[in-house]
Amino acid sequence: MKICRYTYEGTIHTGIIEEDTVREIRGTVPDDMHPTGQVHPFAGIVLLPPSSPTKMIGIGVNYKIHARYGYTIPEQPLMFQKAISAITGHNSNIIYPASTRQLDYEGELAVVIGRKASHIAPDDVPAHILGYTCANDVTARDIQLREHNFGRAKCFDTFAPLGPWIETEMDPSDLLLETVLNGQKKQSCRTSDMAFSIIDIVAFVSDVMTLNPGDVISTGTPDGMGTMSVGDVVEVTIEGIGTLCNTVVSPLDRH
User: Of 14, 87, 91, 93, whose CB has the highest number of CB atoms within 10 Å?
Assistant: First the structure.
């Protein structure tokens, strides 16, 4: 099932994508959702970020391939927070800030929480997951390297594209993840190369903070991350989900 948030004729809705239509739903996803009877043409909607979280967590250095390039795989998930104000959706713009000289893409698989989770055991993790979506952990790399932390470098407005929707029925353990920049493939890896599994990550984060329905955990990027310029089009495609597409614009073009 593909769940999306969207606007139709200026109004925000939540719905289930069914081929070329979207069936509007109301209530709490996933436990108390019900159709309203309204069906909108997919061609007439504008997709929004598929979740409206209370927090977004990122995970660093989470692919084993990083070890081949001199990175040390941490003993436990390396977590950081992305600003909620950084979240943007499919087909929206990534704003290139004037304060950075190196803007990088990082294609990632993101987990969307479905039920409140705190100190949950690994065996209980699947029951707390709503589904999965594509993410681009956009990073001002020069700022990250200069300041020696993820904070400011990953939290500018539009630095957390998510979408295009949430896929609820899939096994995330061995999916092909690819990032394409201006038609050229830059990243290609399978999620089976993760150092820490989805189960490991969600259980670990839930020991640190309560996860609320809609919260997002982006699970790290593989090898091949690289630099973007104004005018570039970046696409993150994950097998079984779809493609998240964004265009890089200058601050003058933010609107």
Answer: 87
pLDDT tens string 140-166: 999 988 988 888 999 999 999 999 999
Give the CATH number, domain containing residue 176. 3.90.850.10
pLDDT tens readout for residues 13-41: 999 999 999 999 998 777 778 889 999 99
What are residue 57's phi and psi, to 5 degrees? -110, 140
pTM for the structure as a whole: 0.96
Q: C-alpha distances in angstroms, 197 versus 25, 174, 194, 252?
A: 31, 10, 6, 40
Query: CB neighbours of 219 closer than 8 A, spacing ≥ 6?
Result: 59, 62, 108, 109, 110, 111, 191, 194, 198, 201
Question: In this structure, are strands 56-60 and 216-218 parallel, antiparallel, or unpaired?
Answer: parallel
If asked whether residues 174 and 246 sit together in one domain, one would say yes
HSE, CB side, 13 Å, CA atoms: give it for residue 107.
31
Residue 8 amino acid letter = Y
Q: Retrieve residue 203's tokens.
A: 């259980």
